[in-house]
């Protein structure tokens, strides 16, 4: 079986009684989890799961020099192969140490890749949820998102993201005028990543304050989701992947589908990294080693009372000491290789995106509307930009839209043109766009029947002046120089979209 996820957390206690109470909370969480799973035959370890499957459970307890270690090992069958959950709770040196490891195996007689959707075990959330004092290093752990709201929230989040000692990723979930990607996504993401990440939920005010503090290249706003890896200082912003709300919606087709997809994607990445980067605390191994040494010493004492076994016992002892030295050296080498492998995986993980995943943005967001339109001209081959577009853009504030959203909307038009080239959309263009989170509409009958109003909506197209009856609305209800409208019409004979105007509302 191979390790697929690892969790490690600890907390301190002040008195023996305090320590016992804290251990009891963790133990109760484990026992409740097992009871929810099914029943065990203590004599054989056979475990009858409540759904009829058959598993196996083993529990061991040791104590030495005031230190204690309890280990639970539970294995259950799944369609994708057996899953083993090992839980270790140790008490030593005024600390309670907990380590949970998930291991997966292939189905019987299986030749091929293992495809398992590994999730955070409920027992991890149960243990973490029983106390607010669990930490990994100096990072507090929990099962709920942290809200960072307004100016003060932005300052606190900034301190968290750029903290030099932070050792866990931060998953930042922002809002637009309609809220986050879906209601409750922050809670679900935090549950998915319990013990392995900090999930931050920010409002628009906090998002813009982060942008002002660190620059747009580090921002996360407008319903976007961003993953900030540890050691942000000195790194390239593109190493910290960003998914805009619109790109997630366009890929999945619905908000719920987009939420499930990005949660699965981030969960798979972070749990996969934990398998390499989080290992069993050395203090737990030392408890086992001390206990094993004590057992060996006790057996040696029996042997030494019989002279004919004394030499043999001493030779075993010397061999054991030599093996310990070699084992420690091997463990050090393995840990070094594990770190190197984790670093390589971290460097490559966003370079290769499977077909089922949503690729994060591969470039920094545009800082002005002009830059957004210039990028669209260069990269969106199915869009034709009329001669009046630059005039409209020039009259806008540089940060209107905002620029990143303008580019997102133009990319949506490109995608719609590509779909139309394959065949009918099945719905109206406006509805197709709305289904992907793009706000737009056609002109009202009043406007369409008014020569005066339609004259305002007539701009240069590929064949001269033409009327534009559909428009996109990246934003609304703000100052005129920040209110952007994108007018467009399809050109079916050339499988492209004509963009006649990007500028202020023509009214």
On the 0 to 100 scale, the average pLDDT is 88
Q: Output the number of helix runs.
A: 15
SS content category: alpha+beta
Biggest sheet strand line-up: 1-7-6-5-4-3-2
The radius of gyration over CA amounts to 30 Å
Terminal Cα separation, in Å?
A: 67 Å
| Approximate strand percentage | 15-25%
Uncertain segments: none
Number of beta strands: 21
Shape: elongated
CATH third-tier fold name of the largest domain: Glutaredoxin
Helix percentage range: 40-55%
Q: How is this structure best described in words?
A:
Helix 4 links the parallel strand 11 and strand 12. The longest helix is centred in the middle third of the chain and has 42 residues. The chain has 15 helices and 21 strands. The mean pLDDT is 88. The strands form 5 sheets. It has a 7-stranded antiparallel β-sheet. 41% of the residues lie in helices and 22% in strands. It is elongated and about 110 Å long. The chain is an alpha+beta fold and 507 residues long. The protein has 3 domains: 137 residues, Alpha-D-Glucose-1,6-Bisphosphate, Chain A, domain 4 (2-Layer Sandwich), CATH 3.30.530; 221 residues, Glutaredoxin, CATH 3.40.30; 135 residues, no CATH class.
Ordered list of secondary-structure elements with their pairings:
Blueprint: E1 2-12, H1 16-37, E2 38-40, E3 46-49, E4 54-64, E5 67-76, E6 83-92, E7 95-104, H2 122-129, E8 135-136, E9 139-140, E10 146-148, H3 150-161, E11 170-173, H4 185-192, E12 198-202, H5 204-214, E13 225-228, E14 242-243, H6 245-252, H7 255-277, H8 282-304, H9 307-348, H10 369-379, E15 383-385, H11 389-394, H12 403-422, H13 429-434, E16 440-442, H14 445-448, H15 451-456, E17 458-461, E18 464-467, E19 470-472, E20 485-491, E21 496-503
Parallel strand pairs: 10-12, 11-12, 15-21
Antiparallel strand pairs: 1-7, 2-3, 3-4, 4-5, 5-6, 6-7, 8-9, 11-13, 13-14, 16-19, 17-18, 19-20, 20-21
């Amino acid at each position: 079986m191979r390790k697929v996820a690892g969790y490690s957390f600890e907390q301190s206690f002040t008195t023996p009684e305090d320590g016992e109470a804290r251990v009891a909370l963790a133990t109760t969480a484990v026992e409740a989890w097992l009871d929810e799973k099914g029943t065990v035959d203590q004599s054989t370890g056979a475990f009858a799961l409540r759904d009829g499957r058959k598993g196996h459970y083993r529990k061991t307890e040791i104590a030495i020099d005031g230190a204690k270690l309890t280990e639970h090992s539970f294995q259950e069958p799944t369609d994708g192969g057996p899953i083993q959950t090992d839980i270790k709770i140790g008490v030593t040196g005024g600390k309670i140490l907990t380590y949970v490891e998930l291991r997966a195996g292939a189905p019987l007689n299986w030749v091929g890749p293992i495809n398992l959707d590994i999730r955070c075990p409920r027992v991890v959330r149960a243990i973490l949820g029983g106390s607010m004092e669990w930490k990994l290093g100096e990072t507090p752990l929990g099962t709920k998102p942290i809200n960072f709201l307004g100016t003060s929230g932005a300052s606190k989040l900034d301190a968290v993201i750029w903290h030099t000692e932070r050792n866990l990723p931060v998953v930042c979930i922002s809002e637009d005028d309609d809220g986050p990607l879906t209601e409750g996504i922050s809670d679900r993401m935090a549950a998915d990543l319990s013990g392995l990440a900090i999930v931050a939920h920010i409002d628009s005010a906090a998002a813009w304050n982060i942008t002002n503090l660190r620059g747009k290249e580090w921002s996360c706003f407008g319903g976007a989701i961003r993953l900030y890896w540890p050691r942000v200082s000195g790194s390239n912003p593109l190493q910290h992947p960003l998914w805009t709300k619109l790109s997630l919606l366009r890929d999945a087709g619905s908000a719920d589908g987009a939420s499930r997809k990005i949660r699965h994607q981030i969960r798979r990445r972070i749990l996969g990294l934990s398998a390499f980067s989080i290992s069993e605390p050395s203090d737990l191994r030392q408890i086992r080693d001390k206990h094993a040494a004590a057992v060996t010493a006790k057996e040696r004492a029996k042997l030494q009372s019989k002279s004919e076994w004394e030499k043999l016992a001493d030779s075993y002892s010397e061999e054991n000491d030599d093996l310990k030295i070699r084992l420690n050296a091997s463990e050090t080498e393995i840990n070094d290789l594990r770190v190197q492998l984790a670093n390589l995986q971290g460097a490559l993980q966003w370079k290769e995106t499977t077909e089922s995943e949503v690729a994060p943005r591969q470039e920094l967001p545009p800082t002005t509307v002009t830059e957004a339109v210039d990028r669209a001209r260069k990269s969106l081959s199915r869009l034709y930009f009329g001669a009046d577009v630059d005039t409209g853009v020039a009259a806008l504030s540089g940060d209107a839209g905002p620029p990143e959203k303008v580019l997102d909307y133009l990319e949506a038009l490109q995608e719609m043109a590509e779909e139309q080239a394959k065949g009918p959309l099945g719905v109206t263009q406006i509805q197709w766009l709305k289904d992907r989170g793009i706000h737009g509409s056609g002109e009202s009958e009043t406007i369409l029947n008014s020569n005066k109003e339609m004259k305002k909506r007539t701009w240069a197209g590929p064949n001269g002046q033409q009327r534009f009856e559909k428009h996109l609305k990246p934003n609304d209800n703000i100052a005129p120089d920040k209110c952007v409208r994108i007018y467009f019409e399809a050109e079916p004979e050339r499988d492209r979209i004509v963009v006649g105007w990007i500028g202020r509302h023509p009214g």
